[in-house]
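User: Let's play a game. I give you a shape written as tokens, and you guess the letters that built it. Ready? Here's round one.
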């Protein structure tokens, strides 16, 4: 690999390359060599910007979590519009068709990465925990608007939705579930709570 090639936005290019490798080849294929090869740069570039590969991966996961803020804001703004089931189906589909399932596999596979993430994310499974919070915040808004029964706990509904959707997506070997399958789990879980 050439070492004299200037890279703009090195972190972004390395993160995007890692995401492509992770989605295409899985967690076991994600190495510093695979990332730098995918990014078209020398292996030393990654190590100039990150102390080690687990530090790089931890920053990748945190970056992807930060990107969820836009999705969370859009979902909260959707409260009171459309249908609760439709909004949740769209949100879960967007979350799990992104990097979520692959990131959970990556975190599970790498002890060093889990240790790094625990420094800033002390509980839960990163990405899934933030996804559950996003859904709970939305359901709280809908409950406040009277579209979800007042006696229903948004956090419990959110945990159930995230867990069930994760199992649905993780159970597919590269194939994404149909939107109808996601909508069916949403309807089953929140259907009797919707007003």
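Assistant: Ready! My guess for every position:
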């Amino acid at each position: 690999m050439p070492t004299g090639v200037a890279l703009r936005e090195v972190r972004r290019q390395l993160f995007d390359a890692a995401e492509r490798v992770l989605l295409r080849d899985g967690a076991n294929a994600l190495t510093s060599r695979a990332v730098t090869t995918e990014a078209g740069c020398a292996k030393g570039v990654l190590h100039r910007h990150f102390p080690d590969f687990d530090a790089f991966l931890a920053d990748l996961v945190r970056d992807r979590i930060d990107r969820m803020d836009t999705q969370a804001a859009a979902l909260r703004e959707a409260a009171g519009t459309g249908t609760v089931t439709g909004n949740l189906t769209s949100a879960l589909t967007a979350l799990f068709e992104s990097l979520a399932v692959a990131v959970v596999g990556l975190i599970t596979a790498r002890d060093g990465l889990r240790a790094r993430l625990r420094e800033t994310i002390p509980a839960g499974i990163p990405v899934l925990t933030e996804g559950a919070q996003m859904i709970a915040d939305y359901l709280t808004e809908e409950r406040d608007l009277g579209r979800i029964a007042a006696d229903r706990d948004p956090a419990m509904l959110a945990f159930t939705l995230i867990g069930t959707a994760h199992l649905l997506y993780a159970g597919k070997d590269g194939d994404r579930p149909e939107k109808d399958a996601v909508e069916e789990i949403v309807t089953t879980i929140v259907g009797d709570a919707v007003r």
